[in-house]
Task: inverse folding
């Protein structure tokens, strides 16, 4: 568990590289915003989270398998993670921010990720 990183993960780096290559400019891990979004597009007022499918429980994803050992511990841990994500997104939206979630499994293919970012970041701004 100590080797699990919260920043600069492989999926996050893929999103950052893709967004930057598209000409998008962003800030990283703004601690003054609820949930410290992974990427923040201030001009567009968008907060983007890159969620690991396992830790944040991506529904129906094969990467979100349940551990076989200590199931009681893991159920509580995953529920707390999902609830924390929900609260952070809710607070950001109350503050007037648009929120976007990119899942780890969506970062595997560069072209798919590029299309996903175009579609999810489209809007006023």
Result:
């Amino acid at each position: 568990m100590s080797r699990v990183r919260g920043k600069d993960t492989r999926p996050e780096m893929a999103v950052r590289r893709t967004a930057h290559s598209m000409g998008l400019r962003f800030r990283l891990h703004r601690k003054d915003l609820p949930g410290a979004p992974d990427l923040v597009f201030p001009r567009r007022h968008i907060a983007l989270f890159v969620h690991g499918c396992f830790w944040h429980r991506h529904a129906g994803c094969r990467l979100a398998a349940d551990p076989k050992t200590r199931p009681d511990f893991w159920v509580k841990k995953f529920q707390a993670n999902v609830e924390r994500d929900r609260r952070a997104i809710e607070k950001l939206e109350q503050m007037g921010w648009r929120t976007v979630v990119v899942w780890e499994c969506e970062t595997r293919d560069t072209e798919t990720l590029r299309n996903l970012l175009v579609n999810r970041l489209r809007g006023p701004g």
About this structure: The radius of gyration is 15 Å. Residues 10-114 form a domain with the Endonuclease; Chain A fold (CATH 3.40.960.10).
